[in-house]
UniProtKB/TrEMBL annotation:
Name of protein: Phosphonate metabolism transcriptional regulator PhnF
Keyword Ribosomal protein: no
A Pfam family: UTRA
Residue span(s) of domain HTH gntR-type: 5-73
Organism: Devosia albogilva
Annotated keywords: DNA-binding, Transcription, Transcription regulation
């Protein structure tokens, strides 16, 4: 009886196992079909069915004219809701969150910053740039802006309290919510690619957000650039529970 080779299910499971074990790393292009048939001991129609199943599962991707590649899995599913917190997002997925301040200054508010914070153009604002990490891998860089008149010594309190949530609480703001979020994509600029360990020209996700106190008054505006291949965003429209604030470090 002629050997029919491994079934498509067995072939699928073997390829899936090699992806899970890290022997087939993201962005690896698979060899030609005849080589795969020999390697996995299967017939061509079984191989094609196995590959199609893995494409449907999001484990592989087909780039027409180039071949079949191991898909990149996002490192982080970042949930954006009315009470979004950086550290909690990462901790809930078993990731270690950290951040570093790159620069701090006081500047006149641009039209865009003033509009977001509901203040006059040219009014003084604290501006802080940062870089955020997940498991020591850079995932975001950005700038945050706060009104000087409302938060006169915010940089000093930020260094002492480490968390923007605790800083707000020190000013009598017991809690705050995400008022508005804008997300769009563009290509990484040279300095952004270097800081996020990306290739120049790779896509990044730009997230602009306005936080407000419970009376709806804006208290902070930020714009962050995220490494597009390392994060996906999930928007929640209803978060009935109150997220805890201990140990947060909202970069």
């Amino acid at each position: 009886m002629r050997n029919q080779g491994h079934s498509w299910q067995e072939t699928r499971d073997r390829i899936d196992g090699e992806i899970a074990a890290g022997r087939l790393v993201p962005d690896t292009r698979l060899p030609p079909e005849h080589e795969l048939c020999v390697h996995y001991g299967t017939r061509r129609h079984s191989l094609r069915k196995a590959l199609a199943a893995l494409v449907a599962e999001g484990k592989l991707r087909v780039e027409h004219g180039r071949g079949t590649f191991v898909e990149r899995a996002p490192l982080l599913n970042y949930v954006i809701g009315s009470r979004t917190r950086f550290r909690e997002n990462l901790m809930s997925q078993g990731l270690t969150a950290s951040g570093e301040t790159l620069e701090e200054m006081t500047i006149p508010a641009s039209d865009r910053v003033a509009s977001a914070l509901g203040i006059e153009t040219g009014a003084p604002v604290h501006a802080r740039s940062w870089r955020g990490f997940a498991n020591d891998l850079p995932i975001s860089i950005g700038w945050a802006y706060h009104e000087v008149d409302r938060f006169p010594d915010l940089p000093e309190r930020r260094r002492d309290l480490t968390s923007i949530t605790r800083v707000y609480q020190s000013y009598g703001i017991a809690d705050y919510r995400r008022l508005r979020t804008t997300v769009f994509t563009r290509l990484a600029r040279e300095n952004e690619a270097a800081m996020l360990m990306l290739r120049v020209g790779q896509s990044v996700l730009v997230v602009q957000k306005v936080d407000a106190d419970l009376d709806g008054r804006p208290i902070g505006f930020s714009e962050a650039v995220w490494a597009g291949e390392r994060v996906q965003f999930t928007f929640e429209t209803d978060q009935p529970h109150v997220m805890t604030t201990h140990g947060e470090n909202d970069v």
